[in-house]
Fold each of these.
Amino acid sequence: IGAQGPHEPAMSKTSLIAGKNTGKQLSALQSRVPENNSCLVCQVQAPAYICMDFKTFVCQSCADIHREFGHKISSIMHSDWSSEDYTAIEKGGNRRAAAHWLAFYNPEDFPRPASSDKESAKAFIRKAFVIKCWQKQPKASRSRRSACRNIFSVGEDGGAQMPVEDANWAHFPPVDEVGPFDPSAPA
């Protein structure tokens, strides 16, 4: 049965990397990429945690807030790391996360919070990672056809032109039946 107990599966020695050794490797990774040397949220220097959901380096205060949102947090030096975890973090990091989650972030509209301002940090994390206000949007595939392409012709500039003569308008309700927009009405 071993140290795991009677109902726990034995952990493969190759799936976990020694915690302190991996912590040192993660610290080295953190040092190699300047953006990883500060908390992604409040920019406090030398963050000691990683938000595993977003593969970002964060300080203790911001880690606590991430936990409130249900995000998985791991300590760089005091967690057991699998080789898969390490590889995922190596492929992530604050630079890549900022390019994705903060792609449209404007500090003039919403300044970065100070680490001591828990409410502002919580609002920032909520906007960035829960609501995804500033997230980079995927590019639309040129092969995907818009529903409007069936009704409207599309000019060379991509703009809608006058309706196509033979368009089937039957699936659209008459304008007088639609009425004003009511956000509480069922779809």
Amino acid sequence: MSVDAAGEEGPSTLSLSSVVKEIQGFKDKFKREDFDSPSPFADLEKAAVLQECRAFSDAKVVTESPRRCSHLITKLLHIVTQGDAMSSSEVTDVFFGVTKLFQSTDASLRRMIYFFIKEVAETCNPDDIIIVTSSLTKDMNSNEDLFRANSIRVLSRMCEEVRCCYVNRFSGLTPRCWVPSSAMSNRP
């Protein structure tokens, strides 16, 4: 809008004050929308989510409903990041349940699996992590670049001094690949 000699705004160009008013209106609108729509995970109960995660044991659910499994992992990650402490038995049960998801070949579910393992491995019992390393080393030697790159990244994050020799043995068997997705994770 433009301002003519009489000080009235016309339809041709925008004035600075009208732009500021419009931006302020958008800011207020979005601020109100934020208060109107709470987080979809706001009312999660840890016990209910842990109960739902028992579906990971069902091979049919894992292979036919990867989105459901990804959504459950997202709920678990939300619980973990919000500071809800899980007992060691709960962590172990969930950790083993997530390892059963390696049956799926869905790429987005696999990404969630790797992310979950990487985030939760620090809180797990070291004896439980050994179970996951076998699945990760299998993926490390996979022909699928996405699986290979992510498994190497997760293994390197989980690796302690004690187990480095074990992991190094398998990483030495991994073919050297310079595909961009796994190049950085596969270098000696």
Amino acid sequence: KQQTENSLAPNSEITPMKVFIHYEDNPNEELHKTSKVTLPKKWVSGPVTAVLDLFVKTYNGKFASNELSLSEVHLETDNAEALANECLVSDYIEESADIYVKHGAPPALSMVTASKLGAKKLPTPPPAAKPQAPAPALDASGLLTCKRFGCQKKYAPDSNHESACSYHRLPPVFHETAKFWACCPDKKCYRCGWRGHPVGGVDVAWPFGKLAKRRPRIPNA
């Protein structure tokens, strides 16, 4: 019988949690699915396999031609870190998090590399004093350049806001004649330039594909 970890937080401190579960691990976009789910307290303090099982059953009820097998898929965090079925939701998933259903058997609990939320770290000696990093440099027009993958647009610091930047969360990949973002492996571009095609009315960065996030822009140092 599989053993689960002990939760770091007592049940009295656990509250229901809203999460977004995505299945995009298929080149056919018509088979993609995103579910917004509110997990009850019992599930938040339990293993992620219950969340995965719920999504798989819901998905299979809608896409009978592409049924998922619970034993052949796993969950990954927004940082592409795979979770074992025994991982507790409250230890690795936070409120409003994006989690992804990926093909492949889940890793063993001992092989999980994701850090627990709020995990205590051993104290480390203070680092040697380093020169303070200079403030991001404005160009001649008084603009900064965003350093996020797929954005890199120039912007005025006072125009930055919570949804100013459309970007990809992982870097580009070049494989023979194909180009694609690591977070959108099913959206490849062959012998193309750096610009893509509009998606949903937005002119996205090369190559085509759904941009993963909307966040404030981050300037280059």
